Fold this sequence. Notes:
The protein is of the alpha+beta class. The protein is built from eight helices and 17 strands.
Amino acid sequence: MALSNIFKFTQGLGQGGHQIGRKVGDAIEILVLGLISNNQNLLPYLVVEDGVEGATSAKHKVEFSFYNLNESGNPIRSNSEQLFGIIECKKVGVEQTIKQNFKTFNNANPIFHISPGYSFVMSPTCRTFKWHVHIEPLLNQENNLKININKIIGEEHEEQIHEIRVSNGNQILFATDLLNNLHFKLNEQSLSEIETQINKCIILQIKSVEDNNIKKINVNEALAGPQTPEKAKQASFVSLDVRKKVLGSFDKIDNDDFISVLVIGEADHWEEKSRSMIRLCNDYNLYIPDEVIVSLFMKFSEKFGNNYQSLLTKTNYLNNVEVKAAVDELLMENEYKILKDLDTNLYVKFGYSNLDGKNKLKVIPFED
Length: 368
């Protein structure tokens, strides 16, 4: 399972996982809202951030819901049976957690510069060789850290030795890509410099340096979204519960009077069992490619400066002319092709039709 290209971009921002994860989620939502808002046939029926009631009488917070209109032309949001479509957005990013064998090492060696050093192994997907990494303190030297990387192939090995100076707060990245290459990045470098997709990442953090001696380090590993089953369960239950309320059945049936759509981000992190769950329960499962979300972050950064992430909200899209213009500009640059079907990988778009007096939310493939 690969680590998303979004992680390659956001890891260099130096923000906490939950903090940047929320903003990636906001980016997904604002892009979907942009698509809906640019469909004038669909827009009148939209309610944003609605509490939709299911057959269990539970209310579910849904990002986008579509209701029939009353005589005044307003969505009948007080009655879930007036729904003809819902769109939920879910994302599961990389989880950075302390590497398991580092916990044991750190308990035995709480002061790093008087330790024998810390070692770990990174195995590529081919399994024909391994990298052995040894991180060793150098006492009372300007270059206060030695990193020895050995590529072990049978009885042979290729060795790299790096002696470097580090400071409080520095980090060193070790990543393997899908072509089985090892990438070694120092503090001023970024994962985004790696052109190929990565599948493993170890992050060495320098926590404390005094008098050229490294007193404390931390070692994290990046895991590709172990929370996907929980997100899949949430989205699946909402779909089932609301479908039962509207159509009288939990099962997907050949009836497009109501459809449930799930849009996910960082799709590479979704395990097959999670994909199977949402396939069973949602009418459509779509995803936004990583590069589109990264492009949105970069565009907002260029246009709005250091505080750009605070503007990445649905409320700002609806009420801030400059934010709306930035999102719409990105959509136009991509010819509105920012959604792909999870199973076919074909671009799709939202549509609207009225057949026999019934409003319908559609998911339509782009024509070639």
